[in-house]
Amino acid sequence: DTAIPLTLLLSNGRYGLMLTNNGGGYSQWGGQELTRWRADSTCDAMGSCCYIHEKDAERLWSATPHPVGGPVAGYSVEFTLDRAIFQRIDDKIHTETEVIVSPEDDVEVRRITLVNRSSRTRRLNLTSYLELSMAPHNADRQHPAFNKLFIQTEALPEQRALLAYRRPRSENEPPLYVAHALMLAPTEANNPLDRDWQFETDRARFIGRGRTLARPMGAVQPLGNSQGFVLDPIFSSRLTLTLEPGQRVRVSLVLAAGDSRESVLQLIDKFSDPYATERAMDFAWHSAQQQLQMLRIQPDDARRFQQLASHLLFPNQLLRAPEERLAENHKGQAGLWPYAISGDLPIVLITIDETRAVSLVRQMLQAHTYWRMHGFSTDLVILNEESASYERPLQERLEQLIQAHALSAAVDQPGGIFLKSADHIPEEDLKLLKAAAGVVLVAARGTLPQQLGLPVETPEQLERLIRKRSTREPSAPLPFMELNYFNSLGGFTPDGREYAIYLGPDTSTPAPWVNVIANPHFGTLVSETGSGFTWYGNSQRNRLTSWSNDPVLDPASEAIYIRDEESGAFWSPTAAPIREQTAYRARHGAGYTVFEHNSNGIEQELTVMVPVDEHGGAPVKLQRLRLTNGSSRRRRLSITYYVELTLGENRETSRMHTLTHWDDEARALLAQNRYHPEFPERVTFAAVTPDTDSYSGDRTAFIGRNRTLANPLAMEQITLSSRTGAGLDPCAALRMTLELGPHEQRELTCLLGQADSVPRAREYVRSFREDHAFANAFEQTRAWWDSLLGTIEVQTPELA
How many CB atoms neighbour CB 1 within 10 A? Predict the structure, then answer.
């Protein structure tokens, strides 16, 4: 698990591919992403993959660590300039995956070689999974559910191929077709093709509600053969292999793109021949060498350009401006526009003040061209800090260099080169430029190898919790609740004021069943599992926490964890992010939701609400956790409140600019995004009451690289990291410890809100820390909603 994802860019000039060392990444063609991807430097959990399932042993893994994860007996990844090679060993099955983009055709090929190094016959199911986007990245990121409506899928049994095409929204929209096949080389005599080809193009049916991509239903069970107007399109195809001891088998996972049905199906036919794949593999190496000659660069230069791209795709503290500089910026994206810089593309900023340092600028102009040839658009900003005088030799030299590259790169255009004089730019705009850049290089520090050679900061290793007990405490079953017209999942309570949802072991609602809880300015959406998101002012433009718009996975962006400090066992009082086998109940009421769950000898009740009264109500989400010790011994528990901060429309654009800090006066974690175009001055606050023992504003330190909220690193550690500031992957995590005697009951409150200033944020935290503050707000809120909704009453003889 490297400190940040390391990436490789492959392209033939039309079809592009980005891969990470974890197996994540995206495919793109003609400026449109074919497969869905989000930049997440902590989890790196999106990309095309191939599941490998051994049914006899009920073992599941994937050709790369993404998406199954877990320990691997042996793993390596090699990034060369023409391909990526992933190798792993799982229970004596050796898997090698070579990934290339064909230089001649708009096709990517993942050639998977499997070798049985055991002494027994192995029967394996290989299942591909590609999540379709087929749209520009920003369009899919802003509204994925809407984007999915325009994609139609089709299965072609004769070719054992899947086809998808995007229905145009206007006459000017160019056609886009994508085809996929998972193919076994015809020369593999001992592995005849299955007569019954299995496939799936419906993501909901493939993953299954309540499951994750680490173990989706479609990877371990027969596929459903859905196609056509699916609401959530994917490509998934299956091959069944039998591997004798010592046998080697090769499989090709092919994805092709084009502007017509005929062109992509011809490519699938072409690459069904293993010699076409072999030829493309050979030609990819020659093509990479030709690129180097054309750009007049050495292989080591290209490797550094690839390395630098990792820092732009996943911005991090190593090559960004120092933390104190990031904190000084008070301007938003619109401040870049007077300089013709949109801010929509990753920015590389070079500062230079002497003519003798121009070699770095020359290297970065070559890097800019190299990236563009590999389908990666960036804005290269050269900041001339030469002292003002009549003669400007540095300015002239820089203009000459840029002119030499102007044939291949636009100047002062998106994805182009921008030469600016520092003495013509106000100080606050210089701070903005440095804060907005994903990579900041200072020419005086030397060449690119010297700047990339900086040591990666290793975070302090926190003390691990030592488990003293291993047995889990028994718990009383969740009390039965009589419901009118219970439909096996939910029903109205007898007074009709709440809708109760019951989640037994391995049961899930067919889609998220949510409650929208809001006052006129502030709101939260919460589903039956406890997932959802919170916003202030505008639920799209100013999300305090992330919203996935994903009805299948419905991932949590806010969570409460309970941990037994003796056994080390941890869980959540809601069904997300940790689902236990004991039952959960969610009761949605007007203005509140109550979650009930008994486990580990602790009875838990969580009440979620947003205060509302005749004056509007406070901009705060309140959660009261009531814990009752159902066991006969004294229990020491820690409660951890986690919030995945967004402070904008999405984390990709806002996380670079979110600043967190611990406020001693309020005993709360405060966060601000001054880059926000509409809410730059607003202060987000998170607090728990009673007081906090430890805190963290670093999501990577909390979750851990390539882990999930179901198993975060922080739950194995005694305290949280206490890291806050600028340049982190931001979150708000707060931990407190309490003791419960036998059958004793305790309450605590978690607060999340947004205020117009730091003093106002402190005021809100103080006011809701007072005794009975939650109870009073809860009663006022229920009374307000009863007054609004109780004005009309309908009586009917049909109770149903």
Answer: 11
Q: What's the token pair of residue 152?
A: 């139609």
Phi-psi region of 47 (alpha: psi -120 to 50; beta: other; left: phi over 0): left
Confidence of residue 189 (pLDDT cuts 50, 70, 90): very low
Distance CA 726, CA 656 (A): 8
State the CB neighbour count (10 A cutoff) for residue 45: 21
Phi, psi of 784 (to 5 degrees): -65, -45
Whether pLDDT at 509 is above 60: yes
Candidates 740, 781, 726; CA nearest to 321 is 726
| Paired tokens of 45 | 């959990």
Measured distance CA(41)–CA(34) in Å, rounded: 21
The verdict on whether omega for the bond into residue 222 sits within 30 degrees of 0, i.e. cis, is no
> Any idea which residue has 């974690």 for tokens?
669
Report CA-CA distances (Å) from 4 to 7, 319, 456: 9, 12, 10
pTM of the model: 0.95
Task: Give the pLDDT of residue 342.
Answer: 92
Q: Which residue has the tokens 């202060």?
A: 683
Of 316, 371, 351, 336, the closest CA to residue 440 belongs to: 351
Q: Pick the closest to residue 700 from 20, 4, 38, 71 (CA basis).
A: 4
Model pLDDT, residue 187: 55
- For residues 572 and 720, what is the distance between their CA atoms, to the nearest angstrom? 17
CA distance 10 to 463: 41
- The predicted model gives 129-150 an average pLDDT of 93
| Rounded CA separation 736/755 (Å) | 24
pLDDT band of residue 446 (cuts 50, 70, 90) is confident
Q: Are strands 514-518 and 233-243 parallel, antiparallel or unpaired?
A: unpaired
Q: Which two tokens stand for residue 716?
A: 């194995």
CA distance 40 to 141: 13
Question: 3-state class of 699 per DSSP?
Answer: helix
Cα–Cα distance list, 701 to 3, 650, 716 (Å)? 11, 21, 12
pLDDT above 50 for 42? yes
Residues 747-796 pLDDT 10s: 999 999 999 999 999 999 999 999 899 999 999 999 999 999 988 888 88
For residue 658, the number of C-alpha atoms closer than 13 Å in the C-beta half-sphere is 33
| Stretch 321-342: mean pLDDT | 93
CB contact at 8 A, 651 and 747: no
Nearest to 644 by CA among 543, 539, 522, 722: 543
Amino acid at 484: N
Query: SS3 sequence, 409-453?
Result: CCECCCCCEEEEEHHHCCHHHHHHHHHHCCEEEEHHHCCHHHHHC
Indicate if the alpha-carbon torsion angle 729, 730, 731, 734 is positive or negative. positive
Query: Whole-angstrom Cα distance, residue 132 to residue 151?
Result: 8
